[in-house]
Amino acid sequence: MSSHLSHGASGALRRFAGWIARGSVGHPMLDGIDYWEELRESPSQMEICIAIFANVLELDEHGEPVNEKYAERRAATYLYSYCTGKLPPGEPDIEPWEGKLY
Questions:
Q1: pLDDT confidence of residue 3
Q2: Backbone dihedral region of 9: left (phi > 0), alpha (psi from -120 to 50 degrees) or beta?
Q3: Residue among 29, 75, 81 at smallest CA distance from 54
Q4: What region holds the DUF7677 domain (predicted)?
Q5: How far is the C-alpha of 3 from the C-alpha of 1, rounded, in Å?
Q6: What is the pTM assigned to this prediction?
């Protein structure tokens, strides 16, 4: 097994960072929510958001992501909950393992 991320896993992390930076993560779940304002005041929340994406992301036997959009949705669920104080309709709460910092 390689000691480096696959191109697919690296790309998934890069795309997620881009979505956060552009304000489009979790589209359309976070439409109308200015999560940047919240994250600016508490950068540790950004750290948790990225951890959720990374912890939820699953890779196949070749190290390629198989659930990138779901991992994004879970991270967006966290941001929604953090910014509004409630869960998005129909979304389960974030599990402790999802937000674990390693």
A1: 86
A2: alpha
A3: 75
A4: 4-102
A5: 7
A6: 0.95
DSSP string computed for the chain: --SS--HHHHHHHHHHHHHHHHT-TTTTTTTT--HHHHHHH-HHHHHHHHHHHHHH--B-TTS-BS-HHHHHHHHHHHHHHHHHSSPPTTPPPPPTTTT---
Tokens at residue 87, please? 């869960």
Q: Any idea which residue has 């390629």 for tokens?
A: 64
Q: Give the tens place of pLDDT for each residue, 23-82.
A: 899 999 999 999 988 888 899 999 999 999 999 999 999 999 999 999 999 999 999 999
C-alpha–C-alpha distance, residues 102 and 39, integer Å: 20
End-to-end CA distance of the chain: 21
What does the block give as tokens for 92?
């389960």
How far is residue 59 from each of residues 48, 53, 55, 71, 81, measured CA to CA in Å?
A: 20, 12, 11, 11, 26
Q: What is the largest CA-CA distance in the chain?
A: 43
